[in-house]
């Protein structure tokens, strides 16, 4: 019997769904005795190292896990389940790991090489390479991994982590594959006797990942048959090339009820999903299709991630919105790439006065199969609060200058990041351009956010200056906060990724607002997903290309909606076009 460890956080539902897809039955570990009953043990998870280790200790799982491993029974760890095998992690100083793999887990450092910026966390699709190993049965070639795990070609796997076990020759006997991020090479697969563990998420790595899981599930329990490497030493080290994950293409589904009460994918222009008639009356909510069916189509076409945005959630409390939760559950059963869900992740007080924290909403979404939650309006309020406290404490108007005392750990972002890890918190930014008149002064707090370029207002021409103002409630309300304050503020609070929309470009097919995206990118070190305005495959290359002015090419991911919904361009076409333009993307990885 296979048992799964659930320590109370992380996207374990995704793994459960993958196992079901592979026809594998399993039990959840509910007590230390269950671990003793397990023939095979699987420890998945994202989240913070210290929290995971403390939860294992509190539940009394540590000794039974050690005993399972010492008995030679198969153990598979994923992400935190791999890091837990190590001595400890800089993420949680003073908290010991299981101490089985003689490595300490450290944090990635941001790097900037030749205009390419390495963001932290490492989020995206990267490869797993077999180093040149010598074993008693001879050298191991780079295809050993593929032969054992059902594929002979180099595959991409989905990584999402800020900490890693750096690879060194002394760890050769524990290492099956390494991966390079920036110039840092770390262990991406541990394989040692009965232990197999991946830093990436096979359950989120499409068919390539499912093949790995399937191969491990099919092991007969004799440890040496897995990967069959035996004791190994590193023959020689290879030069490290600065490496980034592939550029990600994200399909986005804006979801809401239509006028008949059905949950539909909709798409508007400048956030207006109804459009208008010539007589000025509003027409019906545009219906682009059924959410799950469309998401499945995008998965099959090679989307690297799928995002669902509940765009009317500001009206209700998200957890009352049961159709959204059921939609996510069904999608997560069939889609094996990361799923993000946004809309309504916020604190809420019932009419009867009961308080529900944003963390509770996030928890329900993670349990339903989400890998990341995306926070919009609440992020704006959180940064406003942070700045108010900072202003009172030391007069700062830039969140980077806010003293630590201004952080009170009371926002949804902080709490979700603490519980589930920063990589699971996306902040969705909804800015609008505010044009400045000739000679108009701007509040000095927003001066870093002023850019100049072509005036894009209807009927206007020539050059203009503008700044990017944040909005809440799906663009319905503007706030006295600019996008740089928001981006720096949420990075400070613990967001792991930014999704940058543009109300001006939304649904326009005019291309991404690269001035907006570059402005934010150059002021934060977390990954950035550019959104709004994609109208052709070429627009993605333009977004990812180096800018003449700065020599930088640093955008990690691009999101689009309308062109995919309307079948104007398929995800495959975008990727083919990117490959022709010299970008590395994840291409179709075959069937499981
Ligand atoms: O504020 O935390 O409840 O989150 C609400 C979420 O819903 C936010 O992420 C906000 O961006 C989104 N949202 C609210 N209203 C709308 C609307 O369209 N009326 N959708 C909306 C925003 C923006 C993109 C869109 C791209 C790409 N959608 O995600 O898909 O602009 O479109 P394109 O490729 O067709 O140009 P909260």
UniProtKB/TrEMBL annotation:
InterPro entries with a match to the protein in the record: Aldolase_TIM, Class_I_gatase-like, GATASE, His_biosynth, HisF, IGPS_HisA/HisF, Imidazole-glycPsynth_HisH, RibuloseP-bd_barrel
Keywords assigned: Amino-acid biosynthesis, Glutamine amidotransferase, Histidine biosynthesis, Hydrolase, Lyase
Keyword Lyase: yes
GO biological process, one term: L-histidine biosynthetic process
PROSITE patterns: GATASE_COBBQ, GATASE_TYPE_1
Recorded catalytic activity of this chain's protein: L-glutamine + H2O = L-glutamate + NH4(+); 5-[(5-phospho-1-deoxy-D-ribulos-1-ylimino)methylamino]-1-(5-phospho-beta-D-ribosyl)imidazole-4-carboxamide + L-glutamine = D-erythro-1-(imidazol-4-yl)glycerol 3-phosphate + 5-amino-1-(5-phospho-beta-D-ribosyl)imidazole-4-carboxamide + L-glutamate + H(+)
Pfam families linked: GATase, His_biosynth
A molecular function (GO) term: lyase activity
Pathway(s) annotated for this protein in UniProt: Amino-acid biosynthesis; L-histidine biosynthesis; L-histidine from 5-phospho-alpha-D-ribose 1-diphosphate: step 5/9
Keyword Lyase annotated: yes
Residue ranges occupied by any Glutamine amidotransferase domain in the UniProt entry: 4-206
HAMAP family to which the protein is assigned, alphabetical: HisH
Family affiliation: Belongs to the HisA/HisF family.
Protein name: His7p
Organism for this UniProt entry: Malassezia vespertilionis
């Amino acid at each position: 019997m296979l048992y799964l460890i659930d320590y109370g956080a992380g996207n374990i539902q995704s793994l459960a769904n993958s196992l079901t897809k592979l026809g594998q039955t399993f039990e959840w570990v509910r007590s230390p005795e269950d671990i003793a009953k397990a023939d095979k043990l699987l420890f998945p998870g994202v989240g913070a190292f210290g929290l995971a280790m403390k939860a294992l200790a509190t539940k009394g799982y540590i000794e039974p896990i050690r005993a399972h491993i010492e008995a030679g029974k198969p153990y598979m760890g994923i992400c935190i389940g791999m890091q837990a095998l190590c001595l400890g992690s800089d993420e949680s100083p003073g908290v010991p790991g299981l101490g089985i793999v003689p490595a300490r887990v450290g944090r990635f450092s941001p790097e900037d090489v030749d205009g390419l910026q390495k963001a932290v966390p490492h989020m995206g699709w990267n490869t797993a390479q077999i180093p040149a190993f010598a074993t008693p049965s001879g050298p191991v070639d780079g295809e050993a991994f593929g032969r054992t795990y059902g594929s002979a070609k180099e595959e991409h796997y989905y990584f999402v982590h800020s900490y890693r076990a750096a690879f060194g020759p002394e760890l050769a006997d524990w290492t099956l594959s390494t991966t390079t991020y920036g110039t840092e090479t770390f262990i991406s697969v541990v394989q040692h006797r009965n232990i197999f563990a991946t830093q990436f998420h096979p359950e989120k790595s499409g068919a390539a990942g499912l093949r790995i899981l399937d191969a491990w599930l099919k092991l007969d329990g004799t440890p040496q048959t897995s990967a069959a490497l035996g004791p190994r030493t590193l023959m020689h080290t290879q030069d490290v090339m600065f490496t980034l994950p592939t550029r990600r293409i994200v399909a986005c589904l804006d979801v809401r009820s239509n006028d008949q009460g059905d949950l539909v994918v909709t798409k508007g222009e400048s956030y207006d999903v109804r459009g208008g008639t010539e007589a000025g009356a509003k027409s019906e909510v545009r219906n682009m299709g059924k959410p799950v069916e469309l998401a499945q189509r995008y998965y099959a076409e090679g989307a690297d991630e799928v995002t669902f945005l509940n765009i009317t959630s500001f009206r209700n409390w998200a957890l009352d919105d049961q159709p959204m939760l059921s939609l996510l559950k069904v999608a997560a059963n069939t889609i094996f790439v990361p799923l993000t869900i946004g809309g309504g992740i916020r604190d809420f007080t019932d009419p009867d006065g009961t308080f529900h924290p944003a963390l509770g909403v996030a928890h329900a979404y993670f349990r339903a199969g989400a890998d990341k939650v995306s926070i919009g309006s609440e992020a704006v309020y959180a940064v406003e609060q942070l700045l108010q406290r900072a202003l009172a404490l030391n007069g700062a108007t830039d969140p980077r200058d806010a003293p630590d005392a201004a952080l009170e750990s009371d926002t949804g972002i902080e709490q979700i990041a603490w519980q589930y890890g920063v990589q699971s918190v996306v902040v969705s930014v909804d800015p609008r351009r505010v044009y400045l008149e000739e000679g108009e002064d701007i509040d000095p707090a927003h001066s870093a956010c002023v850019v100049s370029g072509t005036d894009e207002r209807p009927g206007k021409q020539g050059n203009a200056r503008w700044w990017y103002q944040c909005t809440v409630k799906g663009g319905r309300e503007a706030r006295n906060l600019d996008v740089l304050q928001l981006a720096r503020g949420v990075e400070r609070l613990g967001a792991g990724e930014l999704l940058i929309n543009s109300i001006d470009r939304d649904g326009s097919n005019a291309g991404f607002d690269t001035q907006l995206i570059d402005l934010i990118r150059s002021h934060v070190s977390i990954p950035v997903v550019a959104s709004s305005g994609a109208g052709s495959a070429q627009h993605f290359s333009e977004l990812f290309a180096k800018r003449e002015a700065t020599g930088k090419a640093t955008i990690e991911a691009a999101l689009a909606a309308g062109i995919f919904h309307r079948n104007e361009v398929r995800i495959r076409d975008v990727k083919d076009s990117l490959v022709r333009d010299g970008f590395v993307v994840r291409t179709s990885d075959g069937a499981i």
